[in-house]
Amino acid sequence: MIVTHRDFWLGLAVGAAAGFVAAILTAPESGARTRESIAARGIELKERAADLSEEAQRRAEEIQRKAALTFEQEMQRATQVLQQETKRIQEMVAEVAKNVPRQEQPSTTSEGQA
After folding, report:
1. 3-state DSSP call for residue 101?
2. Cβ proximity of 29 and 37 under 8 Å
3. Minimal CA–CA distance to 68: which of 76, 58, 79, 80?
4. What is the tens place of the pLDDT at every residue in 49-74?
């Protein structure tokens, strides 16, 4: 059987029409209702994204506060250690200075000056 261009286009048109009718008859909702559902879902997704964004911002701020607190605590601890070590070194220097024999300073008298 030979199919002509006319037969092809007629078959395509009949098939498209049949598909359209089948889609309308089997669609779960009307087009307007489907658009409303899509719009509502879009709004829900937008609100969910906003909620997630706020939650992420809150968590980031909480992490920042904890990091600042930890940094402050570590700085205080490091300052204490530095002060203790400075005191210990000063005490060691003082102890060494006690044990070093002192040299006499040359006297500055007017003898020998004319």
Report:
1. coil
2. yes
3. 76
4. 999 999 999 999 999 999 999 999 99
Residue type, 12: L
**Alpha-carbon distance 68 to 60, whole Å?**
12
Backbone angles phi, psi at 61, to 5 degrees: -65, -40
Is the pTM higher than 0.70?
no
Structure tokens at 34: 């489907």
d(CA 63, CA 71) in angstroms, rounded, equals 12
Q: How many CA atoms lie within 13 A of 38 on its CB side?
A: 7
d(CA 31, CA 34): 5
